[in-house]
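[job 4417] fold queue: 2 targets
>>> target A
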Amino acid sequence: MTTARTTVVASRRHTVTDSPYGPLTLVATDGVLAGLYMTAQRHRPPEETFGEPDPVPFDETIRQLDAYFAGELKEFDLPLHLDGTPFQRTVWAELRRIPYGETRSYGELAEILGKPGASRAVGLANGKNPVGIIVPCHRVIGASGSLTGYGGGLDRKQRLLAFENGTRDTVQALF
């Protein structure tokens, strides 16, 4: 007797939307946001993994992003499909708890997670965040307050932090 195996293949779709920080590629898995990638982003998956172009699954994501960039939204309320290790998903969940306009250091996040010696692991997980801006990895800084690493580039990180702190006009004039 043979047993038939059914393999379920996830449906992936993507679209590109404009933002003050350049084009953002949005990727959905089975209709749920699974990726938000900037141009030239570190750890950006290959384009061929994004699926077919289709703007339909992204209406609410784009609406919330537009409200965020207009300064009208401080916390995203979107279902997310985040593929990663259990530790990565734990770090990403904690990133979503960092309030708008505030920052945490990698070490502070490690402490909050009950792993005080894991600041480097927190940094690595932070860098693999597949849904930047919405899962606000830009709000994580070095222990000294320095802007260390950002998959979208340090200039974008600085601009996002300045935007959230209400100093965006000054910082945007620098770029």
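>>> target B
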Amino acid sequence: MLEPLRQGLPPLDPAAVSSAASCALPARLEAVREARQFTRRTLGQWDVAEHLDDVCLVVSELVTNALRHALPSPASRTCDQEAAVRLHLMRWTSRLVCAVRDPSHDSPVAGDSEDFSAESGRGLFLVDSFADSWGWHPLAGTLSGKVVWALFRLPSVSACAE
């Protein structure tokens, strides 16, 4: 079990975000593909192509984890839980954050398998490998559940001009 981690998460002040996009995802595995497509379109509009493959991989892992581990079984789902997973993309001048909200109060669990040929259990390891930082925090107020996020540092405009 991982402790809630906010370290490295940009300020949540909406005025500090230069761009933001969000989409609700259905409670089915096809939503992973939809999340990648949404991410590709959004990053293309934001002209952040240099991180496209890494961000899409991380989004895939975060959404897959939410669908597999954070939703009730299909038989016990209600209609309002059909879109209980939500992907948020937020861009600051020098940072990009992918955040996946789900209804579970359980913390993410990093797989401890050292079997690299295993077909599952390495999602958070991949997130940690490709993102500059990541973490999670419980939701408060009227929203229930948690958000798992990954941060990518973007090259500064002045560094690109040099």
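[job 4417] complete. Note on B: Residues 20 and 90 are 4 Å apart (CA to CA).
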